[in-house]
């Protein structure tokens, strides 16, 4: 990872009042893939704790569901191929 100090880039901030996280467990070793929507979540750390408790060795991808004028979209928070292990949360 390379850390670059903010050089004054202008951002448009969006505050999501009631975030919805989408968790995709990938199929592996005879286990089916699963998709879950997590609502009423305090923060992303709570999501990662939930993911770790239910992972059972599967890789997992986490996204944030957002709605705009065009409908619903997912903002990917983890690599598309998923996280292999989220232990320690």
Structural account:
The structure is a single chain. This protein is α+β, with helices and mostly antiparallel strands and 89 residues long. The protein has a domain at 20-76. The chain contains 1 helix and 4 strands. It has one helix at residues 44-54, and strands at 20-25, 34-38, 60-68, 71-76. Strands 2-1-3-4 form a 4-stranded antiparallel β-sheet. Strand 1 and strand 2 form a beta hairpin. The longest helix has 11 residues, at 44-54. It is globular, with a radius of gyration of 15 Å.
Which residues form runs of ≥5 with pLDDT under 50? none
How far is it from the N-terminal to the C-terminal residue, by CA?
21 Å
Secondary-structure class: alpha+beta
Order of helices and strands: EEHEE
The strand line-up of the biggest sheet is 2-1-3-4
Count of extended strands: 4
Spatial shape: globular
List keywords for this structure.
about 90 residues, alpha+beta, four-stranded antiparallel β-sheet, globular
SSE layout:
Layout: E1 20-25, E2 34-38, H1 44-54, E3 60-68, E4 71-76
Antiparallel strand pairs: 1-2, 1-3, 3-4
Summarize the structure.
With 89 residues, this protein is α+β, with helices and mostly antiparallel strands.
